[in-house]
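Aggregate trends can hide what the representation actually does to any particular protein. This step matters because it turns folding into a mapping between discrete strings. For completeness, the protein is quoted in full, as a sequence line and a line of structure tokens:
=====
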Amino acid sequence: MTEPFGTRLAAAMRRHGPLCAGIDPHRSLIESWGLTYDVGGLERFALTCVEAFAGRVAAVKPQSAFFEVFGSRGVAVLERVLAELRESGTVTILDAKRGDIGSTMDAYAQAYLAPTAPSPADALTISPFLGYEALRPAIDLAGQSGRGVFVLALTSNLEGPSVQHARRGDESVAGSIVRGAAADNAAARARGHLGHVGLVVGATVGPAVAELGLDLGATAAPVLAPGFGAQGGDVAALERTFGSARGQVLASSSREILAAGPEPHRLIDAVARSADVLTQWAR
């Protein structure tokens, strides 16, 4: 990679709008397209998404689990998806939420972020709930290889707050994650750039960012905001959640866009509509 991840992502967001299109080949979506729920249907679904999204959105986020469910043949389809998006110059974020300790975390980092990985993504989602520093192998390798990570911070599932809002002394768990990202992005922030350590903050977490006293704007972190669209996240929800940090936000939409398929031109239209709305909001 010739440029840092944050720099490349910021350029893609300026060019295409701050939209990340998800590729979530869930059984119900595949079948709603009139496809069979097998490897053949998976491949047709995923490659149609590639055709529609490549070169048209800031980033594309395949959900690894929906490929892994088909075993090695499903993973082979995922690798092809990542390779074709990479060839098109489209930023990829692999949603795999890996998180472990020691040599195991290092192996995950090598599998997804190393130049020698079978089909590396530009960025990987990772889970910090064994401790932020347990993610150090992935954070450091991503920085060294020009790639990025998105660390879960505030998620929109009902169980999330019981962990993420919990406090040790004056600092919440989410706050410690935000602090860690800010420290790892300090050099990029000093240059006025986005860093390589992003944060995942749900588009529908409402006032949680403010209530926990999180200053996302000071982190130089790209913020991946899942839940835009069908999950209830709209521009008003984004504004309530992110406010002045809007310029760092990459909103992710999957089901709403994918429901427009299977015709590629309808997917393209859905992407264009969402990207336009988000661009107007981010200004």
Remarks:
- Strands lie at 19-23, 59-62, 91-98, 123-126, 148-154, 167-168, 171-172, 197-201, 223-226, 249-253.
